[in-house]
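Ticket #4471: structure export looks truncated?
Reporter: QA, pipeline team
Priority: medium

Steps to reproduce: submit the single chain below to the structure queue and open the exported record.
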Amino acid sequence: MKYMALIYVNPNTLTPPDSPEFGRMMGGYQIANETYKRDGVWVAGDALQPATTATTVRVRNGRTETMDGPFAETKEQLGGFYIFDCANLDEAIKYAAMIPHAATGCVEVRPIMVFDR
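Actual output as written to the record:
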């Protein structure tokens, strides 16, 4: 079954790219990515640009409306994602716990809906 791991981070507490901590964090991502690929659970994954670059799209009465960004009242914002192909939720949680930002933000793990075709 496929699971999406949604990585939420607080943009006000992100590790600066020019710091030694950033290198360690990115090293953690490299180790996690290598593990996912070695274990055959990797489907996809990437980081996202900041929420300030987002555009929200709504269609109302046949008319497309766009707005800058999401404006959720939350400190944590979606910062990236992985898609894992795992045997069960416990296995997906095991891999989600390897995501470095799980230690400073949170990771939501959710099964991907499968529609009969």
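Status: closed, not a bug. The export was complete when the record was re-opened. Leaving a note from the reviewer for reference: The first strand starts at residue 2 and ends at 9.
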